Amino acid sequence: MDYDSDLDAIGLLCPLPVLKARKRLEPLQVGQILRISADDPAAVIDIPHFCNEGGHTLVSQDNKGGIQVYRIRKGK
What is the mean pLDDT of residues 37-49? Predict the structure, then answer.
């Protein structure tokens, strides 16, 4: 497994994927990876912006059959 925690945000609309990602990252250690699955069209903008503002690293961003899959490395 190439991630430490998983968030299924499919069916959730802005701002819920980002809010749930923030909450899911809290217990993780710095450097651990959160995988997020989402289908909200705004997530392609919101999640990279969230990483940039929060000091996290967007490790990868893929689209698999209309489902966006993000991997975020927790910063600070």
Answer: 97
